[in-house]
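tokens incoming
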């Protein structure tokens, strides 16, 4: 699990294997070190060729107090191994409240 402090924008670079389940849990704390309250938050993580491009993969995000969890089955991870971009917009009451973004590297599946 990766831990982040709350902020409006965070860059976090990720790596996943092609044709392998993708699972990520991010722990988030407030400025006092307490678990961040994600009540009424929603979000979708989108992997793209470039930041303003169309989504190649969309991942549903689930929230609990202090944690963001993301999962995508291996069957949906069938894209060309290379460097992509992603963004995860955390929406609270219809407004983008936080934004996590970065590079998303897909590596070949190791057999």
């Amino acid at each position: 699990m990766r831990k982040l402090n709350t902020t409006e924008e965070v860059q976090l670079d990720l790596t996943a294997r092609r044709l392998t389940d993708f699972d990520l849990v991010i722990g988030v704390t407030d400025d006092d070190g307490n678990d961040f309250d994600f009540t009424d938050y929603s979000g979708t993580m989108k992997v793209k060729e470039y930041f303003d491009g169309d989504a190649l993969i969309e991942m549903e995000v689930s929230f609990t107090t202090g944690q963001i969890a993301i999962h995508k089955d291996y069957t949906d991870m069938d894209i060309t191994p290379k460097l992509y971009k992603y963004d995860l917009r955390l929406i609270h009451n219809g407004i983008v409240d936080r934004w996590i973004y970065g590079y998303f590297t897909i590596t070949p599946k190791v057999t």
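note: The mean pLDDT is 89.
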